[in-house]
Design brief:
The chain is of the alpha+beta class. The protein has one domain: Alpha-Beta Plaits, CATH 3.30.70. 30% of the residues lie in helices and 35% in strands. The protein has two helices and four strands. The longest helix is centred in the C-terminal third of the chain and has 17 residues. It is globular.
Length: 110
């Protein structure tokens, strides 16, 4: 089974709503995205320090496992469109970047 990660950098456009944004992301958005076939997990991170030009403050790393990664990415696009149509996306979300990366080898540890 092929493995990949999807790296999604985002920002909250309203600093007064950061807490609401993070609660929505953790409790609504991540579970919604994990319903896409092949998406098996997610870990979120916050940038240490201030974002530079073109950087997002938040990073979501989605774990993907699928025999057909191309189909998993297509399913994600379909799921994202459905969520938008259902108004399940918070209005203070700004997508900074989205990158999908296929795993080349096994994880190495010290």
């Amino acid at each position: 089974m092929a493995k990949a990660v999807v790296l999604v950098f985002t920002d909250c456009t309203d600093p007064a709503r950061e807490k609401e944004f993070n609660q929505w992301y953790d409790n609504t958005h991540v579970p919604d995205i994990l319903e896409a076939p092949g998406f098996v997990g997610c870990t979120r991170y916050e940038l240490m320090g201030n974002p530079g030009p073109g950087q997002g403050k938040y990073l979501a790393v989605y774990d993907v496992e699928s025999d057909d990664l191309k189909s998993a990415m297509a399913a994600l696009q379909q799921r994202a469109a459905e969520l938008g149509a259902q108004k399940r996306v918070i209005d203070c979300l700004r997508l900074v970047s989205f990158t999908a990366c296929r795993q080349l080898g096994e994880r190495q540890t010290a």
